[in-house]
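The methods section describes the discrete structure representation at length, but only in general terms. What matters is that the chain and its backbone geometry are given together, residue for residue. For illustration, here is how one protein appears when written out as sequence plus structure tokens:
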Amino acid sequence: MERKKQHIISIHRIAAVALCLILVAPLTAQKASVQATVQPTEIMIGEQALINLKVITPKEKIIHFPVYEKEMVPGIEVIGMLPPDTTIENNVMTLNFKYVITSFDSTLYHVPYIPIFDGTDTIYSNSFGLKVTSPELSDSTLAYLEKINKGETDSIDFRQLQLHDIKPVRKAPFVWTDYLWVLWILLGVILLIGLIGFIIYLVLNKKKKGYFFKPPQVLPAHVRALTELDKLKAEKIWQQGREKDFYSKLTDILRIYIYEREGINAMEMTSGEILNKIRTTTDVESVYENLKQILSTSDLVKFAKYKPYPNENDLSLVNAYFFVNQTREPDPVVKEGEPEMKRENKETGRDWERGKKEGESTTEREDEEETKRKEEEESNTEKSK
């Protein structure tokens, strides 16, 4: 009976253990596992090794790996961290995260664990070791080091130590931005040379032509006035019954010309004041009489509603031409060695004047013929009456 009872008790224990395993298995399956390996396990001072952190976890988990700013453990420096390599199969996610490490002290290092966080718990990896060795020294080097330790030499002779770099000096890759300052210096020198050349050109141009930059050509006052009279003549607005507009424009042209030529503020003066000023500036009687005819007729048209005869309008226009030509600037005398700009302006003025005189003589002849024709028509009309 006792054996039978013991057998029943053992069956109950086995059933209880099996039930616990069944209940714990799903919980264990949901927990992440981590394994750490290092390759190679032995390096020389200054060489690099790779730590691989392999994490197996359900795919819905978010794994956080530790970030080391400098050392993983005292003596092992973390140079960099590589991007994780992730694979998912049957709702199970496998991540491989790598750390690049190095060391400059020869010893056997022990890393107890590397922690990770899966959003709920902190999970620790297995421990591992890294052996760092120093280069083997020759007997002569060891003997010389012994002398140094005993103080038998005051200086260190590296040729006798026979120590060399573990790796040769690496040449830095070419990066054009490192030499950008050279480009800026070249551009600055080029701009400076160009500026100096431009200044020299301006100075030489000033000595040769009399100016740095060619100024705009300003025509004399009489040239501008005659041009405006030509425009007014071409419009022929007095023939359209617009005598007031005609005389207003005609007197404005002459007032502006008098201001620019003689410095008299004719725009702010009455006709009588203008005539008094002109009397003091010229001894030629026809100049005064021509201007008087224009201003007096203009005042009658603008203020007394006077209706001038057609020949009076023609006479006013002709007298305006006479007035400008009689009071114009004298032709300049070109001297040798005179700056080119002044010579060009004078030659342009003379050429313009020659053409203007020819045009004026033709215009005057046409006006005289037209006036005679109109007088003959009027006389014939009176005789017929």
About this structure: The chain has three domains: 29-133, 180-209, 221-379. The radius of gyration is 56 Å. Confidence is low (pLDDT under 50) at residues 1-9, 15-29, 337-345.
